[in-house]
Amino acid sequence: MGESERKNVSQMARDAVEVTYHKLHHFLTEATWSAEKMNERRLEVMNKCSQTRISRGFSLIVDDSGHRKSGCLLRPIR
Which residues form the Transposase IS701-like DDE domain (predicted)? Predict the structure, then answer.
């Protein structure tokens, strides 16, 4: 998603392998899934990689500052 210009369901479906808009939309809006199971799977995947493996003193920082922002910056009034 980081390279996609738009961050919406249509774009995510186009960028994903073997995913259609309807399948993704259903998953996000109608499918029954457990946030707890999803979190367990996330932790399992993180622990497979040495850079994200959870250990003593581990901190995971999620930062979107590397993503381009849309819109324009406001200039201060002087």
Answer: 3-71
Predicted TM-score (pTM) of this structure: 0.43
CA distance 10 to 16: 10
The range of the structural domain enclosing residue 3 comes to 1-56
Token pair, residue 75, equals: 């200039």
Kindly give the confidence (pLDDT) of every residue in the chain, 78 residues in length, as a single tens digit, with 9 standing for 90 and above.
556 677 788 888 888 888 899 998 998 889 888 889 988 998 898 889 888 888 888 777 777 666 666 666 555 555
Q: Has residue 65 been placed in a domain?
A: no
